[in-house]
Predict the structure.
Amino acid sequence: MIPHKLTLCLFLIFFAQGIGIAQRKPPTGGRLAVVVEERLAALRATPQLNGRLVRRLGRGRMVAIRSAKTSADGITFFLINVTSRTHGWIQHEAVASATRASDDRRLLRLIERSQGFDRISRARIFLDHFTRSPLRPNVLLLLGDTAAELAKQLSTDAVRRLKDDPGEASEFSYYLNYTGLDRYNRQRVGFIFDQSTKRFHYDGAAWRELIRRHPKTSQASEAKKRLYSQLRIW
């Protein structure tokens, strides 16, 4: 059982995660895909690396793939719709689609090469869009393990920023309002705050989902170990 001192913290985090975030309407006119590699996500007027830049697309942006073309230097580009008025060519490695065979494995490799928040963000894209992939247990375990590791740095940063200005409100409320948590909250990754140690701990949501949805996998066995370790800390 989770100690009483953490109950309110859990409630506040889960309440905040329940607040909806407005999503853009997916574009039409082709096979849906999502931007996963923003470093390559230059939308161009022509299917060439030196083609005129139309705009840059951010990670997580939905697009509709209309067709494909390979340039003279061997780079494959997709003609995509971004909105009803915006379209252009983008390097094919910048996007992934649940309807394309092996894109889930390609995205998993990208997640494994990523670090910190980038890994969290790309893992969330995978879980949101590749709902039938057999690789979901791998991604859930990676997401949970990465969040647990990041909790240590979040704790250090929060203590450093808040120690010199105690304020007039309850101390724990300043920690749970710490701006460093915001981007993780938007990725639906929550942290529990222990008032006695002034430390954040990952709430374990990805591990619990892994155990619930994929109980017979080796990843679920590892997730159980992680949760047991967390309970010993609490």
User: Anything to note?
Assistant: Residues 1-22 have pLDDT under 50 and may be disordered.
